[in-house]
């Protein structure tokens, strides 16, 4: 292997390593574009504010309300 090829290999390996790190640092799932409950489009500012969200504001509130009330009775 020529030295310049070797240097390129190292560069590539470093690049791949950084890509892997970036992927690992990123949230495991992206925000949904539409609500999983009602199918309405989720506003982009909500999707960015809450990475990984799957529901619109109303459905999320409803979901949290139900979760909070579970086991309280
Ligand atoms: Zn919804």
TrEMBL record:
Species annotation: Sulfurimicrobium lacus
Protein name: Zinc finger DksA/TraR C4-type domain-containing protein
Zinc finger (dksA C4-type): 35-59
Superkingdom to which the source organism belongs: Bacteria
PROSITE patterns linked: ZF_DKSA_2
This protein's UniProt keywords: Metal-binding, Zinc, Zinc-finger
Keyword Zinc: yes
Pfam families linked to this entry: zf-dskA_traR
Residue stretches making up the Zinc finger DksA/TraR C4-type domain: 32-65
GO molecular function: zinc ion binding
